[in-house]
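Hi P.,

Sorry for the delay on this. The queue was packed all week, but I finally got your sequence through. Input first:
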Amino acid sequence: QVQLVESGGGTVQTGGSLRLSCAGPTSGAYTMGWFRRPPGKEREFVAAISYLGSSNTGYADSVKGRFTISGDNAKNTLYLQMNSLKPEDTGVYYCNVYMGLYGDSWGQGTQVTVSS
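Then the structure:
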């Protein structure tokens, strides 16, 4: 288990932007990603990035072209740039790190609210 701390959430109007950050050790990570829990719904995948050399990324269809995931190993920080936000993007956003045999860890979450 590693400690992950998200920040950057807040309230924005439709069409606005936010950048989420996740601070935590990335050494040994296989992948890191962002998930979200919309109000009254289950947690869902948003985006992920590989830490195994390729830096391949993957996105949920609902956020493709609007969100960008990136990582800064020197700062041990994962980012999620969110543009053209929609009310359906509202939810608690969680950072996740998967470390193979060592399992995975989650942050405490940060609230994102998009008003119409």
